[in-house]
Amino acid sequence: MNDLAPLPNRGCQDTPVLKERGQREVFCGLTGIIWLHRKMQDAFFLVVGSRTCAHLLQSAAGVMIFAEPRFGTAILEEKDLAGMADANEELDREVDRLLSRRPDIRQLFLVGSCPSEVIKLDLERAAQRLTGIHGPRVRVLNYSGSGIETTFTQGEDACLSAMVPSLPDTDAQNLVLVGSLPDVVEDQAISLLERLGISDVQVLPGRDAAHDPAVGPNTRYALLQPFLGDTAQALERRGATRIDAPFPFGDEGTTAWLAAIAALYGVSRETFEAVTAGPRARARKAIAVQAEKLRGKSIFFFPDSQLEVPLARFLTRECGMEAVEIGTPFLHKGLAAADLALIPEGPTISEGQDVDLQLDRCIAARPDITVCGLGLANPLEARGLTTKWAIELVFTPVHFYEQAGDLAGLFSRPLDRKRVLRLHPNASAQEAPA
């Protein structure tokens, strides 16, 4: 692939934001449990909610009924909702049963839902009470996974921000990477930093409670995900300082993210080039294969995961695409500034959603690829638009150099599928690329 285009002058950093407040099409924050329970090996996520919450988690996780996942639902029955039973007593009983059956649990998260919030069940007080009963062996925390005002990736933000106040104190200088990644991708990031000579690296969340990071006034932290605004604020209340950088998607984003950390630690340019040259070359080569299919194509983002801004930066800068609209559920300009500055001027930047109005804009624009949630994909496909499921971008490893080609491939495959179906109109969707 050719060298990246010159940096734009502030790019989309000063673009007026179209703010919409209407009907939304998003999953709720409970969905974050699906990747968090896999990451945190000694944690259990107990949703206090309805049968609908239980069905959502069961179907989203694809877990068979006889499996032993690290999540479950304490179901609120009609008598709880009507105030005919003491929900706190029933919750205590269920927690006692759970912890007696699962002695491996060291962190228990009480996760609020729409039903528990509607009946004003105070899970914060319940977590304090249960910590007094089961601590220090088990740490009980709570956060809200309700979808009333949030989108699904904010479940992770709420979870991590709930953990921050209980993290150990330290006065030592340390680096904390913030955000949940698959273990193999996390290992790649730590390996790159260690080769740069940066060794005191911790991750939030740790793979178990014993490996959670310490935080203090000399802590520097780098975000791995753009949807962790509340977690960032919680860390800064503890005295930590954020390292400002684009998010590590693709060659450019990963290099800029590493360079910001390297500059803070005084890593020489020669060392930085020696460590990153090989991975960068592999990333560029892998991206180039997919970029041939993407260059010159237009893309429209419906708001879903808050990944939209850094993904638009990657696709426009490294794959030669044109962004028509970059919709995101919430735009944290402080966290997104570095990526916004790199996106060429032109696209509409929208925050929130009025789905009918946004559908009208999308249909009028006729983009080559539309990134949207599951509920909008089929209707848009029926109108002849090519879609990409936004949720797949969260569940697929896409960070850092070694995943850069896979990230670009997630966007080229819908175009491959459309081409195959046009050439073979009688072929089933299962026979075409995903």
Task: Give a count of the beta strands, DSSP E runs of length 2 or more.
Answer: 14
Beta-strand proportion = 15-25%
Strand arrangement, major sheet: 1-12-11-10-13-14
Tell me the CATH topology of the largest domain.
Answer: Rossmann fold
CATH superfamily of the largest domain: Nitrogenase molybdenum iron protein domain
What is the domain tally? 3
Helical content stands at 40-55%
Structural class: alpha/beta
Shape: globular
Average pLDDT, rounded to a whole number, is: 90
The CATH architecture of the largest domain comes to 3-Layer(aba) Sandwich
Report the C-alpha radius of gyration, rounded.
22 Å
Number of helices: 17
Distance from first to last alpha carbon: 25 Å
Low-confidence stretches: none
Biggest beta sheet summary:
6 strands, parallel
Molecular structure report:
- The chain is α/β, with parallel strands linked by helices and 434 residues long.
- The protein has three domains: 146 residues, Rossmann fold, CATH 3.40.50; 122 residues, 3-Layer(aba) Sandwich (Rossmann fold), CATH 3.40.50; 91 residues, Nitrogenase molybdenum iron protein domain (Rossmann fold, 3-Layer(aba) Sandwich), CATH 3.40.50.
- The protein is 44% helix and 16% strand.
- The protein has 17 helices and 14 strands.
- The protein has a six-stranded parallel sheet with strand order 1-12-11-10-13-14, sandwiched between helices.
- The radius of gyration is 22 Å and the shape is globular.
- The mean pLDDT is 90.
List keywords for this structure.
434 residues; alpha/beta; Rossmann fold; 17 helices; 44% helix
